[in-house]
Design a protein that fits this description.
The structure holds two protein chains of two kinds. By secondary structure, chain A is α/β, with parallel strands linked by helices. Chain A has 18 helices and eleven strands. In chain B, helix 1 packs parallel to helix 3, helix 3 runs antiparallel to helix 4 and helix 4 packs across helix 7. The chains are: A alpha/beta, B alpha/beta. Chain B: Keywords: Cytoplasm, Initiation factor, Protein biosynthesis.
Chain lengths: 544, 355
């Protein structure tokens, strides 16, 4: 009995991974199809799916605990993939398409909050019935798009509570176990936490930069594309940093993956490629938690892939995807930066003293454009330990010939009386109007408010995020704590901090700025107040 | 008595002290705490009183004022020197008045009535000679020295009144007073301390290691994270370099940001400052308020290519206005910032505010 269950589990897992059943009954059909033509016809596929569903229904009735667990895992997997995916595929996998299209950005496979098995089964059954009914009524339509739009329309009104991403549940051992199992299945090594974590942040990961994930990989890695391995290493060592840079690097790596991809026989490009990308994304997530912009980019890529019509030839499909990715980069990042620069330059007048913090590619671009339009201004660059990113911004601005002043963040209340405007970059804009950005941004906004200096945040719309957050604790990133150690006058006080049990070092990466500190947000859609972010998100979703 | 020898010995001591002050302030010499400076100043003033040649209180005051001006000019940011000089001048006035037999109160209060009728204190010129004046003054200075030695203990004794268990306390940089305060409380209560490291000097690191050695759970954060963690902090306890006459502070840079963040979250800000840090200066003097050190701490010489084209500032102090402060804890108890002006009038004579 146990062996049978295990076999069934492995079969379901395989089905979940490959998206195509390997059941013995189907093999005959597939052989026939292969002999007849390159790809299965539509009717064949629908029949296959129906038969699979019948199979699974009978298995479900056995109410096996193991199946439930693996079912939960596959659900977790497919939910990450699924938001724009055709509901047909997900029902074929026995898991319902997670309903909301603007699903949680964290593309990290989400884990369902613990519910009773009976509830889960009932929910799934109900959703399957609904989708089957809708599908049958739409048999004539160009399948995937219709179903997707219907489910989208149905679910836009009521969005269920989002599942919690894994990376903020480190203190929950069940979640960790599931993550370990999933990574094992995808053959990606698990990265271990490092050092003593401050108790307030025990729910977050804390990694050491000296132990990158790639050390645990075999070379050459057969599971992960080398471009992705290189990218992961660049992320974890901080070589590629900044949300725009990370997104662009990610998209370029995906382009490389698509170029090198060949559809295996009996597979459909739209499904298989998405499944190929899943372990890559887990790997990148282990190297460094994904940013909101990266999450949105990944969602877009997956949607484009799954929208490839099945009769498309492989070469044409790949060309199309490459074109889509290039369009995304051009439109959402490069042209958006141009539009934002044009609007911002109206806000810069001659004689201004502008304060910037850290190194934001967008803000640097704006200042360089303003210089070219012959505005006279000078810049004060504020920097903070331990990242000292402001030095990079300083170099870029000085090379262009902008006159700059440089201070550390503790001197900001000394220098603020001279300042006329503050320009800040953002990592993400949350749905409740809070600005998530590099740690220290909220402090600058606070002091600027106390001195009555206007604060302008520049952010492209692809960084808008559906999450809400009110403080910097619940969701954040902990960087390597050893970065805080410094040697001064020949003394390194914190060198042996690990040996002093009550001593902890905290190296936060992000913080959230409340909307009352921010006067204006400049996006490519115009200049909006902080509180209009959910409006923009809604408009974007309707467009898509 | 070998007069000339004593005199040269005295001038040598004074010169040595002055050069120490000059070196200590630039950050290159050994960093000494304000308490040490205060004690050394007072000891030096006692020596001057004992060994210099003077016949009346006025002469002594002149000598002390002259030396005092030289000392404050050596290191203007070290205000404890000036404070001690003013304390000693007040002591001399008191002793003189006592010797004369008149009550102190009437002499020193500038009431409107006195201003109109008698033309003020300018009549008093301290020319009378009193034999026991020298001994009295030296005795009073000794009392002052004892008071100075006990300040840190007096402040730490009040720790348990202000810290309860399971609190999260935030502090910035390194203050010996606050360290003693927290260690005293840690003997009986368990709490958590977050130390902001205060770049570029990073004195917070030393503070954190000292506190963790005393068994207190400590966390070191970067300056940039002060606002981010402030929502979980129950109290902010800081030290300061000087307490100004209006109740404001001249504290290490980054303190103003800390105070603003505490005000935003309605967290009480407690300043542990002994009385010798109270100075009759106001924060209006723009050019003397700030002190700057070498900017290579901020932008090192390794960034040579851009160094010449960039202005780099490295201020040492920050002004914190009195509205952001909740409580002062000093060796004579706790006070609100609005009470500071009254304490000042007890410590210093108004005519000594300008040395």
């Amino acid at each position: 009995m146990l062996l049978q269950q295990q076999r069934k589990r492995s079969r379901i897992v395989k089905m979940a991974d490959s998206g195509v059943t390997d059941g013995n009954e189907k093999k005959g059909d597939i052989e026939r199809a292969k002999n007849e033509g390159k790809e299965l016809t539509k009717e064949e596929k629908q029949r296959l799916r129906k038969e699979k569903k019948q199979q699974k229904k009978s298995k479900e009735k056995k109410d096996d605990k193991a199946i439930q667990e693996s079912g939960k895992e596959t659900k977790g997997d497919s939910s990450a993939v699924s938001a724009p995916q055709p509901s047909t595929q997900s029902t074929a996998q026995k898991v319902p398409a997670p309903v909301s299209v603007p699903a949680p950005e964290a593309p990290t496979p989400a884990e369902k909050p613990p519910k009773s098995k009976a509830e889960l089964k009932a929910e799934r059954r109900a959703r399957q019935e609904a989708e089957r009914a809708s599908k049958q009524s739409k048999k004539g339509d160009p399948g995937p798009q219709g179903a997707v739009s219907k489910s989208k329309a149905a679910t836009n009104e009521l969005q269920p509570v989002k599942r919690l991403p894994e990376h903020i549940q480190v203190d929950n051992p069940d979640v960790l176990k599931k993550l370990a199992k999933k990574l094992e299945r995808q053959q990606i090594p698990l990265r271990l936490d490092y050092g003593y974590k401050v108790s307030l942040f025990s729910h977050l990961h804390q990694y050491s930069r000296k132990a990158p994930l790639t050390q645990q990989l075999s070379i050459p890695s057969t599971v992960i594309h080398p471009a992705i391995v290189r990218l992961g290493l660049q992320y974890s060592q901080g070589i590629v940093a900044g949300s725009n840079a990370r997104s662009i690097a990610l998209l370029h790596a995906f382009k490389q993956v698509i170029r090198d991809y060949t559809t295996p026989p009996n597979e459909e490009l739209s499904r298989d490629l998405v499944n190929r990308l899943k372990p890559y994304i887990s790997f990148l997530n282990q190297c460094r938690p994904l940013s909101a912009s990266m999450g949105n980019a990944i969602k877009y890529v997956k949607k484009e892939i799954s929208n490839i019509p099945s009769q498309c030839k492989e070469e044409e499909a790949k060309r199309k995807l490459l074109f889509c990715i290039e369009w995304y980069i051009k439109e959402k990042i490069i042209l958006a930066a141009k539009a934002i620069a044009e609007s911002s330059i109206e806000k810069i007048s001659d004689g201004d003293v502008i304060l910037i913090y850290g190194c934001s590619s967008l803000v640097n671009h704006i200042l360089c454009e303003a210089l070219e339009k012959n505005r006279k201004f000078r810049v004060i660059v504020v920097d903070s330990r331990p990242r000292l990113e402001g030095r990079e911004a300083l170099r870029r601005l000085v090379q262009r010939g902008i006159s700059c002043t440089y201070v550390l963040i503790s001197a900001v209340s000394y220098i603020l009386p001279e300042v006329s405007k503050v320009f800040l970059g953002a990592h993400a804009l949350l749905a409740n109007g809070y600005v998530m950005s590099r740690v220290g941004t909220s402090q600058i906004a606070l002091v600027a408010k106390a001195f009555n200096v206007p604060v302008l945040v520049c952010c492209e719309t692809y960084k808008f995020c559906e999450r809400v957050q009110t403080d910097s604790f619940v969701s954040n990133e902990l960087d390597d704590p050893d970065d805080l150690i410094v040697t001064r006058n020949g003394q390194t006080h914190l060198e042996h901090w690990q040996q002093e049990p009550p001593l902890g070092l905290l190296n936060l990466v992000y913080d959230v700025t409340p909307p009352d500190f921010v006067d204006l947000v400049i996006t490519e859609l115009g200049m909006i107040p902080c509180t209009s972010v959910p409006v923009v998100l809604r408009v974007k979703n309707v467009d898509q | 008595m070998p007069g000339p020898d004593k005199e040269t010995d005295l001038t040598e001591r004074v010169e040595a002290f002055l050069s120490d002050l000059k070196r200590g302030g630039s950050g290159a010499g050994p960093l000494r705490g304000s308490a040490e400076t205060a004690r050394e100043t007072t000891a030096l003033l006692r020596k001057i009183t004992a060994q210099a040649r003077w016949s009346s209180a006025g002469d002594l005051m002149e000598i002390i004022r002259k030396e005092g001006r030289r000392m404050t000019a050596a290191q203007p940011s070290e205000t404890t020197v000036g404070n001690m000089i003013r304390r000693v001048l007040k002591i001399i006035r008191e002793e003189y008045a006592r010797s004369r037999g008149s009550s102190e109160e009437a002499d020193q209060q500038e009431s409107l009535h006195k201003l109109l009728t008698s033309g003020g204190l300018s009549e008093e010129n301290f020319r009378q000679h009193f034999a026991p004046l020298k001994a009295n003054v030296i005795e009073a200075i000794n009392e002052l020295l004892t008071e100075l030695e006990g300040t840190t203990d007096n402040i730490s004794m009040q720790a348990l009144e202000h810290i309860h268990s399971n609190e999260v306390i935030m502090t910035i940089g390194r203050s010996r007073t606050v360290e003693a305060f927290l260690r005293d409380a840690a003997r009986k209560r368990k709490f958590h301390v977050i130390v902001a490291e205060c770049a570029p000097f990073c004195q917070g690191h030393e503070m954190a290691t000292n506190l963790s050695k005393a068994g207190i759970e400590t966390t070191v954060i970067a300056d940039a994270a002060i606002f981010a963690v402030m929502s979980r902090v129950n109290k902010v306890i800081i030290g300061t370099q000087t307490v100004l006459a209006n109740g404001g502070l001249r504290a290490v840079n980054g303190t103003h940001t800390l105070a603003l963040a505490a005000k935003h979250h309605s967290t009480p800000l407690i300043v542990c400052a002994p009385m010798f840090k109270l100075s009759p200066q106001f924060p209006n003097e723009e050019d003397t308020f700030h002190k700057f050190v070498s900017p290579h701490e901020v932008l090192p010489f390794t960034e040579g290519e851009i160094l010449s084209k960039v202005n780099v500032h490295c201020p040492v102090f920050d002004y914190v206005p009195p509205e952001l402060i909740t409580l002062f804890i000093s060796n004579i108890g706790g006070h609100a910032p609005s009470y500071i002006y009254r304490l000042m009038s007890e410590l210093y004579h108004p005519e000594d505010h300008e040395l």
